[in-house]
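Troubleshooting log. The previous run stalled partway through. Resubmitting the same two chains, unchanged.
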Amino acid sequence: MVLGVDVGGTNIRLAVVNAQGDIGERTSQRAELSQLAGENAAQHVLDTLSDAILPLLEKHPQISVIGIGFPGFFDNKTGRMIASPNIPGLRDFALTDALQEKLHLPVHVQNDASLAALGEFRFGAVQGLNSLLHLTLGTGIGGGLILDGKMYGGDGGIAMEIGHMHIAPEGRICGCGNTGCLETYASATAVSKGYFEQSGKRLNAREICLLAEQGDQLALTILEEAGHYLGRAIAETVKLLDVRHVSISGGLSQAWPLLFPALSQALEEHLIPPLRGQIHVRHSALNDDAGILGAASLALAHSSE
Amino acid sequence: MVLGVDVGGTNIRLAVVNAQGDIGERTSQRAELSQLAGENAAQHVLDTLSDAILPLLEKHPQISVIGIGFPGFFDNKTGRMIASPNIPGLRDFALTDALQEKLHLPVHVQNDASLAALGEFRFGAVQGLNSLLHLTLGTGIGGGLILDGKMYGGDGGIAMEIGHMHIAPEGRICGCGNTGCLETYASATAVSKGYFEQSGKRLNAREICLLAEQGDQLALTILEEAGHYLGRAIAETVKLLDVRHVSISGGLSQAWPLLFPALSQALEEHLIPPLRGQIHVRHSALNDDAGILGAASLALAHSSE
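Second attempt completed without errors. Output:
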């Protein structure tokens, strides 16, 4: 038994998972971790995580390893956190060591988007792949990459920042300081913002997906635009990486039948001939659980050590 | 001793190389291999290659392995050639087996751009890197990628088609059928074509680089545009891959001091904050020999087997 933990900007989700990827008890806890700054950030993160984790450890003494997906950049080799873009107070932080000391169990922490990709790779609808690109359409766009069966993080743990691909010239202003980034068009936040700007109604991505399914024209247009830009971004990525399988999860992917046609058309248009028809993009069957199952996979990989 | 062979569209270049990467005798031979179609293409390629290689094998009996860089897509695992975009007659061709039979020596063939990256990685100016992106600015733009010390080819051997990154909306028509591809702005061919269209003078990229060094305004403008698009393409690539080192070779890179400022400015502008100042782009010190030395590296890696 292992514990899989998926740390988001506003929620921490936890689940007890067995070696087959079956989820047992699960809990969830609100936690405002983003925008934490200063010296207390590290302590606050540590306390919040251990408060969420300890009750499950007490209840399930069979848990032998803990895997955690965290929004940050990690050193591939040491597992040390280099920085967390949404938690400015955390820099060069040995989160793993600090948690192990507090919890008295082996802890393994990795980038949340990479672990979502690992979860999809190990427990998703298609097994036995060589590589996989996984996108999570949430507050931003999380990108995770599995190459030859392993999580790929790059030289400094920052790889797969596909949300900041420059996709629209003269485009919208992004939080990163640039304009025209993919996530200003195709994240759950972007769709919600776009709908509000044109209708005055504040709805989340899931609500907009429901409206689109009911034929709401504005919702349909915005989802189609998101699909178009996603297709283009995937085309550019696979021309560089020749990864043949792509999965997509997150609130915005709920309206898959409405998102996919524009995505697929833009993808095929922007590929080179030898890749046309070769890229398989699918809606994640795990959806919100990809992150938890990826964190559990990381723990399972270490549980036999 | 090994033999390194770099097969281009119009030239085959060969060199005898020792384990330290020192080049001994070298030869070069014109060979019109591109656009070969039909059943005779394979035989023609085989004959041309063995005619170029045999004299060197006779003269240097110490050569124990042959490495060849060839413009085509190769299966990562079997080494079999899947296709060669410029030689339509070659499909699913066991070039390696056929050459071994003819030459009575072990032969290893891989994608030419990947081998140029390997040559730069093993014998270039900076040693001990983890990963490297190498670009060759020639007829098109060859992209090769080394990840964790190994050539990366992707699921189907097509990876790093950076020349076909969509970089300019409403841009120029490319040979691949799309518009606005990087190589329609930043290949040696593109620069030569651009200069001709605006001046009526037919010059090659090296001549245009020389003119730019002498202050020719049109040549300067065209090189600056090429540098700008290269910088943007490198930014998009490293946001996906977090590869910190990039090297560039090929005729167009001769005018490095003129190309680099626009490249560097566009690169930094399009990066996300944690990557700014972290990407090192340099002019290849090996230049035209990167391909030969990469082919030799491939042979050397197998010479101790």
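Takeaways: The two ends of chain B are 14 Å apart (CA to CA). The first strand of chain B starts at residue 2 and ends at 7.
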